[in-house]
From TrEMBL:
<keyword id="KW-0560">Oxidoreductase</keyword>
<dbReference type="GO" id="GO:0016625">
    <property type="term" value="F:oxidoreductase activity, acting on the aldehyde or oxo group of donors, iron-sulfur protein as acceptor"/>
</dbReference>
<dbReference type="GO" id="GO:0044281">
    <property type="term" value="P:small molecule metabolic process"/>
</dbReference>
<dbReference type="GO" id="GO:0045333">
    <property type="term" value="P:cellular respiration"/>
</dbReference>
<protein>
    <submittedName>
        <fullName>2-oxoglutarate ferredoxin oxidoreductase subunit beta</fullName>
    </submittedName>
</protein>
<dbReference type="Pfam" id="PF02775">
    <property type="entry name" value="TPP_enzyme_C"/>
</dbReference>
<dbReference type="InterPro" id="IPR029061">
    <property type="entry name" value="THDP-binding"/>
</dbReference>
<feature type="domain" description="Thiamine pyrophosphate enzyme TPP-binding">
    <location>
        <begin position="66"/>
        <end position="217"/>
    </location>
</feature>
<dbReference type="InterPro" id="IPR051457">
    <property type="entry name" value="2-oxoacid:Fd_oxidoreductase"/>
</dbReference>
<dbReference type="InterPro" id="IPR011766">
    <property type="entry name" value="TPP_enzyme_TPP-bd"/>
</dbReference>
<dbReference type="GO" id="GO:0030976">
    <property type="term" value="F:thiamine pyrophosphate binding"/>
</dbReference>
Length: 257
């Protein structure tokens, strides 16, 4: 075979975890949700906990996560995923229970459920995708929208005098005693994907040890909502999102970094 033949699509082998279905992802091209889905399922498969894992999908861009994740899933009302996960975990304490939520869901309508589940130290994993905007419903301003950032409901940019500062959920919940592990990661490069996957694996291992809440924030882009190409949105994310939402561990083994 010639070298030129190797790169032909028909000669390439694309490997994906068996826990991702063959359903076409509904996410916009370039969105980080697909990668976050993939590494979460890879961790579950590699840990051998497929039959013991239950995911909770709320409302937002991830509302159809059960179509893509080939594991036991249930749906929650908007913002209520931590409450549903709490019930499942208490009924089946030996299960690995996780939520998969966006910033509009977790940090807005679901603030109460998030805070109180974290404060109680429920033995669940929360995966929180933060793209600084309401992606599914038209690009409205979210609690995580940056100062000066334009959205459909802040067309002149977020004015912190009237709209408040963007909320840093991971720092907020890290200060609660029930949170055992809190970290912020990204998935836009190979290096960041590896770190994010390692963090998700650590979170599920914490569940195995009954350590309480593990809170994994993934800062992602929203090229559609931000009105950019995927590459432009990744650059904008690095230059604007990361300075305000710095990546890395915030709380490990119950201790703030």
């Amino acid at each position: 075979m010639e070298v030129s033949d190797i790169i032909k699509p028909e000669n390439q082998v694309f490997c994906k975890t068996q826990l991702l279905t063959d359903t076409t992802l509904s996410y916009c091209p370039g969105c980080g949700h697909g990668t976050a889905h993939s590494i979460t399922m890879e961790v579950i498969e590699e840990m051998g906990i497929v039959q013991d894992t239950i995911g909770v999908a709320p409302v937002g861009c991830s509302v159809l996560a059960y179509d893509f994740m080939n594991i036991d899933m249930t749906q929650a009302a908007h913002g209520r995923a931590p409450a549903v996960a709490t019930a499942i975990s208490r009924v089946w304490p030996n299960k690995y229970v996780f939520t998969y939520q966006g910033d509009g869901d977790l940090a807005a309508i679901g603030t109460a459920e998030t805070i109180h589940a974290c404060n109680r130290g429920e033995n669940i994993v929360i995966i929180f995708v933060n793209n600084g905007i309401y992606g599914m419903t038209g690009g409205q301003m979210a609690p995580t929208t940056l100062e000066g950032m334009m959205s459909s409901t802040s067309p002149y940019g977020r004015d912190v005098k009237t709209m408040g500062m963007p909320i840093k959920m991971t720092e907020l919940v890290a200060n609660l005693p029930g949170v055992y592990y809190a970290t912020r990661q990204a998935v836009h490069t190979h290096k960041h994907v590896r770190k994010a996957k390692k963090a998700i694996k650590k979170a599920f291992e914490n569940t195995r040890l009954n350590n309480g809440i593990s809170f994994i924030e993934i800062v992602s882009n929203c090229n559609s909502g931000w009105k950019m190409t995927p590459n432009e949105s990744n650059i904008w994310m690095e230059e604007n999102m990361f300075p305000y939402f710095p990546l890395g561990d915030i709380k490990v083994n119950g201790k703030l970094k």
